[in-house]
Amino acid sequence: MPLTTLSHKLFVARAQAVASSTFSDALATGGDFGSKPTGTIDILDAGFLDPTVGVEKNVSVHPVSKVNGITFSFAGGNANDDTFTWKLFAWRNENGPATLAADGTGILGTQKVVKWPHNNLATTDLNDNAVDRFWADTIVVSNDYWIKEIEATALGSNSVSNVWIDAAGYRYFFVEIDSQDGSDMAVYFGYW
User: Does 119 reside within a domain?
Assistant: First the structure.
C-alpha cells in the first residue's frame, strides 16, 4: 500500500478572541473530560468546527484515527512584532483528564492575513471594523510535556510559523491564548 498524506484547507482551532487563561486557571477542578472548554477541537470530526454551522453534533467514539499529526498556526494582533503566550491541552478519545501538551510564546511577523482562510472574509476586529491582522512568524515551544517532541517552524522569517505535534492517539485539542499585545488572536489547525 502506498504512503499517502492528507491535504485540505485550514480549520478554526480558536475563533478570533481576546486572551483568556480561564481554562488553565480552573484546571485543578475543571480538567476532567466532561469539562472540556467550548472551542475544543475534535480531530476526528473536522466538520464539527465549521463556524458557519451552529448545530451541535452527536460525537461518536472512533477507535481508529486517520489523523497522524496536527499543525497549529496563529494570527491576529494589530501590528507586526506583537507578542502572545499560548498553551496546548489534549484529551484522549473517550475519557480522561486534560493533558498539558506544551506552552510557549509567539511573535507576529509582517505577512498580513489578507482574508481568513476558513471563510475567505476580510479581517475585522470583534466589532466588524476592517483591521490588519498578521500571521505569527515566530513560535517558541517553551515547555514540551508531550510523549513525542513538539516542533515549531519558520522562526523569524516573516513567513508563517507553525507548531507541529504528533497526535499520539489523542482526539481533542484546545489552544489557550494566555496573553497578547495589540488585539485579539485566532488559531488555525491542519492535519496529516
Answer: yes
Range of the domain at 93: 14-25+37-46+66-191
| 34: Cβ contacts below 8 Å, ≥ 6 apart | none
Cα-Cα end-to-end distance for the chain: 17
Of 166, 142, 139, the closest CA to residue 153 belongs to: 139
Query: Which helix (H) or strand (E) is 180 found in, with range?
Result: strand 172-180
> Does residue 51 lie within any of the structural domains?
no
Summarised one tens digit per residue, pLDDT across range 47-99 is: 544 444 444 445 555 566 778 899 999 999 888 899 999 999 999 887 788 99
Q: Using DSSP bridges, classify how beta strands 41-42 and 172-180 pair: parallel, antiparallel or unpaired.
A: antiparallel
The radius of gyration computed from the CA coordinates of the chain, to the nearest angstrom, equals 16
Is residue 87 situated within a structural domain?
A: yes
Q: What is the pLDDT of residues 135-188, one digit of tens each?
A: 999 999 999 999 999 999 878 889 999 999 999 989 999 999 988 887 789 999
pTM: 0.76
Report how many domains make up the chain.
Answer: 1
